[in-house]
Amino acid sequence: MRISELAQRTGVTVHALRHYERMGLLVPARTASGYRDYPETMRREAIFIAMSRRIGFSLQAIGELLPAYRTGRLSIDTMVDALLERAGAIDRQIADLQSLRTQVLDHAKWLREQELKPRRNQGSDDAARPWPQSAKQRGARKEAR
Hints:
Elements: H1 3-10, H2 14-22, E1 29-30, E2 36-37, H3 41-54, H4 59-71, H5 76-116, H6 135-144
Antiparallel strand pairs: 1-2
């Protein structure tokens, strides 16, 4: 089947399919006139790649799983392990974003406090008030003592 038909049957864009090909994940045959010719088996592979991307797997990680998937040797245990590892990575991203959110709110609070304080001469030591430190920075300072 042609790339447009594969795109239509999988819900994966032509652009994405070409990208997967450039990355070596999909390797279609070529017709005599140079058109890509995808066998029916690549429909399943394109869906596997797209679903894996949707839940955040990198193309490199997908490329490592794809040979076993193609041959039917990708076990449920291997997939569950990969999914649990991905969930752990998401948990770490959430923790990092929560920490960043706290820093943003601390900075906003600090700015409001500065607005309420009377202004002094620009040359005085009080004019340069430091930004608030994050919990991570405060912890690092305590450990250094």
